[in-house]
Design a protein that fits this description.
The complex is a heterodimer. By secondary structure, chain A is an all-beta fold. Chain A contains no helices and 11 strands. Chain A is 0% helix and 60% strand. In chain A, strands 2, 4, 5, 9, 10 and 11 form a 6-stranded mixed sheet that branches. A 5-stranded antiparallel sheet of chain A has the order 1-3-8-7-6, with no helix packed on it. In chain A, a hairpin with a 2-residue loop joins strand 6 and strand 7. Chain A is globular. Chain B has no helices and 11 strands. Chain B is mainly beta. In chain B, a hairpin with a 2-residue loop joins strand 7 and strand 8. The model of chain B has no long low-confidence stretch (mean pLDDT 95). The chains are: A mainly beta, B mainly beta. At the A-B interface, strand 5 and strand 10 of A face strand 4, strand 5, strand 9 and strand 10 of B.
Chain lengths: 112, 113
């Protein structure tokens, strides 16, 4: 991904909490997405942050700091089905334009 | 709605052949995106359209790649001639103007031998 950095792989234990970090280039930024992608499947939307702070949605939360160009995805009470790649993506949108750029993804393995 | 529909799901072709990938976006969506995903490079934006008009094709790797959107319900991505390094999963996604969530199709896994 263009100027979007996230760890390549992470491993966590079932029932635990894991935090996946993402840093991005702050210029031309409107918002930050997290997508989940299971192996062999399409990415699916998890969260969108446009303002600083924490957005909570069930077991998943996403945090954004626009001044630092930093976001994280927090997964609580991990389940085996959470094993997937998690893609951080930033968006720039303007008149008629919509640039959605993805990081390379973090492959999360949840172990018993 | 059936979601974003891509065809074929899998394509195996020989080097030098023409390949055409197809996408039907969600009805009413204004934006259509073509992405390519590989292990090495992740998910890369190739081109996107707004109201059937190409807005940014700077991600198209070479002149061998071309994309069209003749109407609001159909787009194609063509590779001619194909090369082994084009092997990847190609995703199409669509988005409604004013919305924040882009919906992805199931992808086309292309293998060029």
């Amino acid at each position: 991904g263009q100027n979007i950095d996230q760890p390549t792989e992470m491993t966590a234990t079932e029932g635990a909490i894991v935090q996946i970090n993402c840093t991005y280039q702050t210029s031309g930024f409107n918002g930050l997405f997290w997508y989940q992608q299971h192996a062999g499947e399409a990415p699916t939307f998890l969260s969108y942050n446009v303002l600083d702070g924490l957005e909570e949605k069930g077991r998943f939360s996403s945090f954004l700091s626009r001044s630092k160009g930093y976001s994280y995805l927090l997964l609580k009470e991990l389940q085996m089905k959470d094993s997937a790649s998690y893609l951080c993506a930033r968006v720039y949108s303007g008149a008629g334009s919509y640039q959605l750029t993805f990081g390379k993804g973090t492959k999360l393995s949840v172990i018993p | 709605d059936a979601g974003v529909i891509q065809s074929p799901r899998h394509e195996v072709t020989e080097m030098g052949q023409e390949v055409t990938l197809r996408c039907k976006p969600i009805s009413g969506h204004d934006y259509l995106f073509w992405y390519r995903q590989t292990m090495m490079r992740g998910l890369e934006l190739l081109i996107y359209f707004n109201n059937n008009v190409p807005i940014d094709d700077s991600g198209m790797p070479e002149d061998r790649f071309s994309a069209k959107m003749p109407n609001a319900s159909f787009s194609t991505l063509k590779i001619q001639p194909s090369e082994p390094r084009d092997s990847a999963v190609y995703f199409c996604a669509s988005l409604r103007q004013g919305s924040t969530e882009a919906f992805f199709g199931q992808g086309t896994r292309l293998t060029v031998v």
